[in-house]
Amino acid sequence: MQKHAARRLHFDFRLEHEGVLLSWAVTRGPSLDPADKRLAVRTEDHPVAYGTFEGVIPSGYGAGTVLLWDEGSWIPDGDVDEAVKKGVLKFQIQGQRLRGGWALVRMKPKRRSDRENWLLIKEKDAEASTDKDPVAIWSESVASGLDLEGIAKGKSHALPEFIPPQLAVAVDTPPEGPDWVHEIKHDGYRIQALIQGKTVRLMTRNGHDWTQRYPPVARALSALGLPSAVLDGELVALNDAGRSDFSQLSNGAAERLTYFVFDLLEFDGASLREKPLHVRKKKLRAILPSDGVTVRFSEDLQGDGAQIARAACRMDLEGIVSKRRGALYRPGRHSSWQKSKCIGRDEFVIGGYRRSDKKGRPFASLLLGEYEGDQLIYRGRVGTGFTDTAMEQLAGRMEGLRRTKSPFSNIPSEARRDAVWLEPRLVAEVTYPEQTAAGLLRHSSFMGLREDKMAKEVGRQPAPRSKKAPLPGATAKDTLEIEGVSVTHATRIVFPNAGLTKGEVARWYDLAAPRIIPWLSNRPVSLFRCPDGISGECFFQKHAGHLPDKIRRVSIREKSGSKADYLLINDKAGLLQAAQMGMIELHGWAARADRLDRPDRMIFDLDPDPSVSFDQVKGAAEDIRQLLDQVGLASFPMVTGGKGVHVMVPLMRRHGWDDVGSVSRGIARSLAQAAPERFIATASLEKRKGRIFIDWLRNRRGATAIVPYSLRARTSAAIAAPVTWKELATLPASDVFTPELAPSRLKEDPWKDIAGHRQALTSSMITVFSEF
Hints:
The protein contains 15 helices and 45 strands. The chain is α+β, with helices and mostly antiparallel strands. The protein folds into 5 domains: 2-152, no CATH class; 166-341, D-amino Acid Aminotransferase, Chain A, domain 1; 364-457, CATH 2.40.50.140; 480-588, DNA primase, PRIM domain, CATH 3.90.920.10; 601-770, DNA primase, PRIM domain (Alpha-Beta Complex), CATH 3.90.920.10. The strands form 10 sheets. It has a 10-stranded antiparallel β-sheet. Strands 21, 22, 23, 24, 25, 26 and 29 form a 7-stranded antiparallel β-sheet that branches. Helix 10 (502-520) runs antiparallel to helix 11 and helix 13 crosses helix 15 (763-770). It is an enzyme of class 6 (ligase). Keywords: ATP-binding, DNA damage, DNA recombination, DNA repair, DNA-binding, DNA-directed DNA polymerase, Exonuclease, Hydrolase, Ligase, Manganese, Metal-binding, Multifunctional enzyme, Nuclease, Nucleotide-binding, Nucleotidyltransferase, Transferase. Residues 259-372 form the ATP-dependent DNA ligase family profile domain.
């Protein structure tokens, strides 16, 4: 909808259909009062591109200033063409300002008039209002934040754009380790603040403008005097004990509004989303007042996550949110943010209510559900937690949503008794200490309505399983399509501690394929598969059995003299099919299938005893590098995603396995002899205590090594990441790169110079190192 200051001010209402914008000129703008019918004159269809226009139309037809007043999506009730032909078009709107059911009704034509007059009417539903005038409330653009005067003057300082928020994965226990920081989980509305100087917009997680609901917060942000910024945080109402109280916030009785800001996404025109979390937070702390009341920095809680969570629960807080210090900001639900709740607390769709036999009580309990696909699944009732005011307000909201049939797909007969069914549009937040085996809520309590969430968003988030928990069953709807490959059970948790799903594993291999395939193509590979997640049974597969069509085979003669088919993955489709099979890790040969007798690399795997620090491992890698430099061989490091480092030496295919094996063995033994207190060159766990095993055994025929950019089946869900020697010296651990943090690494290859090193073993190398 565009506000158009032409010869006469009006609002252009446009609905996209069949490649054009059906258009009406609403002379007085929209009204939320169903009794207020606004004249809407049908105009010619416009191109779709015109729907986002904002600016000044020069002299001529339609001249004047145009402001983008609202935008969103619409859902027609039935066939659009037939409805327009009949003159009654009903539809649902999900805009930033207008929502709910609406109707356009054609009036009888006047004699000698070619104008097609319609009426724009608000339906009676939860979004209707008799005391709110949207035209008076909102005068600024949803795109730029400017009013008509500002657009006419050509002001260029527009508001930053809304950014879809990052969401946390639910976990049973918080993650551990120094890579994580923790925050109090506030009980309020997720709000993104778009700031341009004195102009502020408060946006919900779905991009709806709530500035007019909370003017004190907007004024406090405006007073900060920031040049431009996008803040992410939680808007809460604090009770007398200083704790967030969602019931006060949702009932509109909040006197102590506080906006806890925990992230800074943009500042002064520059995006910070590609910066690590700790960098964003440092900048955020610097721009917020230290003594703020209405706007406050959400402090980090340092220490053991489990202890912090227990302390939060003892203080009757909702829980904590744990975030990786180095995580980039990624819209959507990602395991670099994890939430741990003290008690069950979730959103549920209100699909009906039970009548009350008590005088003055409009209902006995609400009937709740959540979506699984398109079906609303019944989850039980809530009959406590309502104040008299909340109950009265809720009854008024439900009055216009009655329907004759149940919206639930599985409502039990007991719940049908005395039930009044509702259109499933309202979302309630409910606490519950437990659920039955059938998923029904027990001892639930109503906290308030979630005005910031749509009913269709409310669905069960797959919870990470304990190590002994059975896998949840998956349905055909639980399927992810990537590049033509179907990944089933996509929401199954594969890494419980990190909250990483099978679908996210597949997405990582889709994203990293351009970097992985050069190290994988035409090279026999073994798959480390965990079909039930890393907490279940895992196994290596090197022989080709029944395989998908994109995973190839190569026949290899084994030590026994017989031949067997091994696996080859030459493209992204094969990589994704392997992920569908539950593949977590890729382990490749040091030779390619066309010359299996000629290895093209030599690898030293530094495998430390648990007591050895990563600084000692880095020192060992540097020692190997210096020795290799002395004999004229360039080398490249890779952190393995576990505890060690691989030192990789590219080779021209001139020597066989015996020569490569003897040289690598000699290098390992020479270092072990020179520093026996630090190194060992034999695979003995007992003798390894306090030392690093220089594993040269990767350089034998049939041996494999982890492929660059492969995931590791470890609790951290880290990847094996190629690095430069300079970068290696700065890393705190081998498992610092995860799928959330690694995408930025894919932009530039740390090993880009490797192709320029055409090097080979020499006869003197073979002679010298064979003596060890």
